[in-house]
Amino acid sequence: VQAAFRNNLSYLLELIGSGKESLIFMKKRVRHLASQWLLATRSLAQKLKGRRRDQKQILIHIGFLTEESGDVFSPRVLKGGPLGEMVQWADILAALFLLGHSLKVTVSLKELQSNLGVPPGRGNCPLTVPLPFDLIYTDYHGLQQMKQHMGLSFKKYRCRVRVIDTFGTEPAYNLEEYATLHGYRTNWGYWNLNPKQFMTMFPHTPDNSFMGFVSEELNETERQFIKSNKASNMAVVYGKEASIWKLIFFAFLPQGKEKFLAILNKYMEIHGTVYYETQRPPEVPAFVKNHGLLPQHEFQQLLRKAKLFIGFGFPYEGPAPLEAIANGCVFLQSRFNPPHSSLNHEFFRGKPTSREVSSQHPYVEDFIGKPHVWTVDYNNSEEFEAAIKTIIRTKVDPYVPYEYTCEGMLERIHAYIQHQDFCAGASPPLPAKPNGHAMPSSPNPFTLSPNATHLVWSYNGSSAPHVWPPMSSMQVWVSEAGRACTETCQEHGLVCEPTFFEFLNKKDVFLQLRIACDTTESEMNHLYPALAENVPECYLQKEPLLYSCAGYSTKYRRLCPCRDYRKGQVALCRDCL
Ligand code: UDP
């Protein structure tokens, strides 16, 4: 069946159901963004005109909202608890629905079981029941529940699962045997999935797929209105929970809290949206004008007036800074030096990633930057003060990166649904193979670039392997010792694409790069394929699930599969649609 774009969201609102604050929040968001979603859908439909799109049967099981996983979120929706996940789920639902797929939404174990076709009371059903869904979007909690209640079907069907995973899961943490042996401990389990099945909130981990969410876009009238109504001395502080004000002072700015706030207060009127019950939260200083937690729409109205949105170091990587920038604010945040990671910060401890977070919001730092985003050292009060003075004087237009617009998100999810297939061929778990899978061996598909720095794909015979992203977007670069492929590709204006690892995990490729290998061993190591820094030894990857863009060691120079990307849509290569 072909999928038909939808032009109305009311049936989705019914599907979402009700009864929980979290669901009410999500419905409000869908309703509020409805006209933008519908415009974007029409525009994408134009762009994809005549393209065949299969309609998928999709189950969306939001595990963290089930009573069985404790549902700690719903009761905190109105109390300043995290909302980022709900923002993202609301947008995923809207996008899947508008793309024309057939959806079931579950937020309890009972509904999950009945949708999976597991007979009641047969929790550990040993039989494999046919799965009535092509795709299941869930989270780590939901994954656990599915494993418990699907019996053998889980193994068979896990290639159809997509895991919404804010901060990302690196390959070294995903494979149980390897993680256990090498100390990649996590609180989230080991699922042996294809790492691309994990979908993140920001495109920070190319080993995973970037799912994202949307940020409101302004029309011309709204832009004009903002221009004439900005209060150039108004700052809003990022953070809804009073506890972050404590954090600011004790964890991030051990010395000089008075100095830092006094500086800001010298130039600007400081506003907050910190949740409180009856009294003003004692953590928030008296000169801060606190509005209390606002409904999302009113929060955005506040941002429209404000000139500056200021982060104190927590929460990490949420939607709010993008919304602030979309509403014409400058976002000022602290640089983390040394960067925060699972090794040195409680928040990331036990999370399945070694990512080093260089500021409160690395996406806006790296992908947006000045004049919208200022990342400064808060311990240096001169740098801080100079930034504020400049920001007050600078005119900044509202800005939304294309990948965070409704159309950008629809386009990306459309591409994933039509092209990503983790069930075909090399779907995990397969026994480790030394050489990835079949690939025309002659003629060899690469040529060395004219300056001999990297390999480009040059084979265009009819038996070119059918992969997505297409091989034509690929370049192979060798990293410096101590550098990850993520950074190596970035340095060349490209992005690491783990799908391509299998094509460069070959002796031939070393040869073509004119790398001398006295020995070539095939082992399990998330840094392979690689060559030793000082001796002519080469290494191939033995376990396809360990192909990893992340990871570095001063002992190795890594072979890195990079690809091009569309400006404003890093998830897609130029020929990817
Ligand atoms: N938000 C809100 N009311 C407020 C402040 C924020 O509804 O008073 C919303 C905001 O629009 C954003 C969401 O809360 O979409 C999540 O924001 P944040 O970046 O703080 O991420 P979190 O830590 O909640 O995941």
Describe this structure in words.
The two termini are 20 Å apart. The longest helix is centred in the N-terminal third of the chain and has 27 residues, at 21-47. A hairpin with a 5-residue loop joins strand 14 and strand 15. Helices cover 32% and strands 15% of the residues. It is of the alpha/beta class and 577 residues long. It contains 19 helices and 21 strands. Strands 14, 15, 16, 17, 18, 19, 20 and 21 form an 8-stranded mixed sheet that branches. Strands 7, 8, 9, 10, 11, 12 and 13 form a 7-stranded mixed sheet that branches. Strands 2-1-3-4-5-6 form a 6-stranded parallel sheet, sandwiched between helices. It has helices at 10-16, 21-47, 84-98, 109-116, 140-150, 153-157, 171-174, 176-182, 220-229, 243-252, 257-267, 296-305, 320-326, 362-368, 381-393, 406-419, 485-491, 501-504, 507-512; strands spanning 57-61, 102-106, 135-138, 161-164, 198-200, 209-210, 234-237, 269-272, 289-290, 308-310, 330-340, 357-359, 373-376, 446-448, 454-457, 474-478, 495-496, 519-523, 530-532, 537-541, 556-563. It is globular, with a radius of gyration of 24 Å. The structure holds uridine-5'-diphosphate. Residues 82-84, 87, 240, 273, 293-294, 296, 299, 315, 318-320, 323 line the site of uridine-5'-diphosphate (UDP).
